[in-house]
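Notes to self, Expansin:
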Amino acid sequence: MFSWTSFILTFSSFLLTVTAHYYNSPTSDSPSSSSSSLPEWKSARATYYAEADPRDAVGGACGYGDLERGGYGKATAGLSTVLFEKGQICGACYEVRCVEDLRWCIPGTSIIVTATNFCAPNYGFPADGGGKCNPPNPHFVLPIEIFEKIAIWKASNMPIQYRRIKCRKEGGMRFTINGNGIFLSVLISNVGGAGDLMAVKIKGSRTGWLPMNRNWGQNWHLNADLKNQPLSFEITTSDGLTLTSYNVAPKDWDFGQSFEGKQFES
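result:
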């Protein structure tokens, strides 16, 4: 004999099973699996340098050259020892905001800067008494034009928060070739995505892929005779992503020339 009570109980049990399976199944929208979530804010301090300071004329410790011509503009930062990572971090992008000081902070503002320089420690002063870029201090040194977007200039040494973000760059990556004879040095700039490089390989039309060594900042070098060969590059950023640009430089490339390759998505 058909029983409505038994049917309702059975159907209810079925619904509970389906619902539990749906909510416990992993999906691409769950917070734990989302790749677009930004890292947490970290604490640091920031100071500025005046417009007349010549440090940007040579692109600082990362070796980017003229930052205005290179497309970085004023939205740059020099990083203290604990952040600079011996030049590994060059090209990384950060969002920075002013915090904790109602007198000097401009509320609701943040800036995005690219790491292009090194703030050297001054061991003549303690880390908490003048040695602002001494370990273990996380510290940003900003152009005054950028500093004033988040704080009033009278603030001087300000508490801030920062976090890594993806770099968004116009155009492709740029490869500037320097050197002499069999010594080849390549400055890689305008890198999107993670922004900082972990590994670089180069290939001529008559060679396999040759790993390059970091010289300083984002200047990479090797000893090889690659003249009269089109050059290809394989770039790996700090997040493990690899991008290959074939025949970036033509067969008749020369030292001192710059060429444009592919770009990471951001």
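- The CA atoms of residues 51 and 197 lie 29 Å apart.
- The first strand starts at residue 42 and ends at 49.
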